[in-house]
Amino acid sequence: MNRSLIIATLTCLPLAFAACNRSDAAENLPPATGNGAPAMPTLPTLASNSSGENAVENQALRATGTTLALHQAELGPKMSGLLSAVLVDEGDKVKKGQPLFRLEATNMALGAQQAQAGLAQAKVGLSQAELDYQRTKSLYEQGAVPAAIWDQARIGYDRAQVAVQQASVSVSSARAVLGDTTVVAPFAGIVASKRKNAGETVTMMPPTVILVIQDLSKIEVRVKVAENALTRVHPGEMMKVHFPSLNADRDVPIDRVNPSVDPLNRTVEIVGVIANDDRALKAGMLVEVTFPEPPAASSAASTNSTPTSAPSASNTRAVEAAAPRSSTTKAVPTASTP
Q1: What pLDDT score was predicted for residue 19?
Q2: What's the pLDDT score for residue 37?
């Protein structure tokens, strides 16, 4: 019992001393208001920021973007099979319609030959049916054969004509399948990437990308700006584009403004097209774009630069003439009281 009382006393003594110290410190503090209160600190006076806000609104709009090829195609096979040959390498220039790679086409070639043989057989059948048709027609006109035989000859001739047409379609289809084993360039450009080699198996679904072709005759400059800048960018205007990797500057016209705003980051894409005859520009380069200043900024600058003219003498005289003249009143002496 005594031990518990001693422990409780020892525990409470530090708290009591701390409370006393806090009360003494509170008594020594100066009053918050009235006599003896410390002086309030003086706050700096902020000037009007209207001119600064206008400067921010009228300053040039800058953004970073990237370059893209005018046309780019990722080419894959039109059917699944074995890649027998890749006819180009990375960096090669290609023309439109130039063969780029081939698939193993042995089975397709056999199918085309079989279709061609079927067409030849159909033509032989058509020749025989035509002979029967002519003979039966002559005999039928003479009354030597009944109508049933004439009908059979006529129907047989029509059937043979349809068979020839069907065989011709089969030949065209087989040739088309055989042609699909060779993929050609869809446009003139340069081979930007080669991802497969001869001997590899490629598929149509999922598509296997074998070559990437780019048309670098013109380069697209794509940059995203905030949607509140839509009033400051318009198609046809010039934007200054800086290429840090080349340390070069070029003026690029705005080709189009994307009609939709990205709802995730509230930006809109601006696209400019620039000629690249020397092929110095590459796809994927970083660019720094400066858009033209708004017309309000230039007009405000011209207004501020124009000095205010002093009023002319004629205007001063006109103002003085228009002001009413003040009537002078004579002071009348008053008699003093005796």
Answers
A1: 54
A2: 72
